[in-house]
Amino acid sequence: MASNGTSVAEGDKANQEDRLSALPDDILIHILDRLKTRDAVRTSVLSRRWRHLPGVLSKIILHVGSFKPKDGSMLAKDDLRIRSNISVIEATQSILAHKSQCKINFLSVGFYLREESISIAHSINDAMANREIVSTKFMILPEKHGIQRMEDDKIICGKRFMSFSYACPRAFGCLKQLILTCVRLGNSDFTDVLSTCKKLEYLQLISCDFQPSVLQMEHPTLIKMELVVCTFGSVDLKSLPKLRTLIVDTWMGLEEIYPLSFGYVPQLSTLKLTYKGTTRDKNIKLSEFLGNAAIGALHLDFECGRIWIQPEHPKLLAPVLRNLQIASLTCIHEECNLTWIFFLLEAAPLLETMHIKMWDHECKTSEDEELYQKEGTFIASMRKNIMHKKWRKDSRKVVCTVDDVCKPIFITNIIDTRKNIELQPFENICSYFVPIFNYVMQTSPKIAMQISPKTDLIPTSVEL
């Protein structure tokens, strides 16, 4: 009886497997597309019916981080990277070797920039002769990490990357996303890369070296660009008609020129700049710096350094801040005075949200006494006159949030003084906000506020 029961159970299991295998290819592919690519490829060993399916996947994502060998903990880091990289190469070749004409909607490959990695580009290049690949992403990682990453290695990696792009124009021609790390490229090399990657929409460059030259940027389809700890003199955004988001984290800080030059960027809406300023750095005048760009979201991260934005008269700033709705000012040193933010408030008529983040960093340097901006007569005058006639005709809400050190939420309405002005409750008010609250009290003295013994601020809304 036991053997008969076992036979029946095995027969039911076989029937279930047969029913799954009997599904049409498009249904099975839809199921496999929901799995990780490595798991989907493993299904090819189930039966002959499944053998060809990995070759017709519409979404393929292969990354060295997913191909760590089981005995990886026993290997040196260099050996681990080599074996993971070889596994990615073999998987790419195996999947793309199928003589299928099915369209690949998305192909993403992350690999180390080693000599043998050119096989990945060759495989894509060959596959495109028979089938359409709609969107491709390359995440190209450095072969060496940390202190191993010397300048000579960047030069070698730069030459290797350029040889890849020249040898496989089809593969690079269908790239929509490119993440490139730790290479040195000349200005002409970079121009060649952009011209080869005709469909590029997202570009992230990490720790790339372009020397102190002016990097020319022209591309018809680029939507988002990130430059993270890259070496360059300046980036000239000459013509980027579809660019919407630009993120720049750290630049060389040359005194003579600005790090960016904005040319034709009609759709640029979000700009994020991160830089730890020193007394040697050139202050940025937004009216000059932004040029023709009229952004909607401005994010400035000062990394606990000097405030490198130069206050300007609202009449000068109004053209470049006319569309500004969100302003984020983060990692401001605790010794910096916050009153300099008011020139942004007055110059941006559409501003709705301002986020301020203090940083109570303990490190001190020899230049600290002159590092942090103090309140000057220009700022004091601007703060005094911020509620000018034009603003009294508007009805606007400016939301200020502050965390890290104080972690309160500060909300104030800058509106017609005949209406309600409300400050939402928050906790642990500290000295950083004294100038702001003094200003609010001066401009709207009928606001009633109660301060508890625990220094919690509990304001009350009052009809004016």
UniProtKB/TrEMBL annotation:
Gene3D superfamilies: 1.20.1280.50, Ribonuclease Inhibitor
InterPro entries in the record: F-box-like_dom_sf, F-box_AtFBL13-like, F-box_dom, F-box_plant, LRR_dom_sf, LRR_FXL15/At3g58940/PEG3-like
A Pfam family that the UniProt record links to this protein: F-box
F-box domain ranges (all copies): 17-53
Protein name (Swiss-Prot/TrEMBL): F-box domain-containing protein
Organism of derivation: Oryza rufipogon (Brownbeard rice)
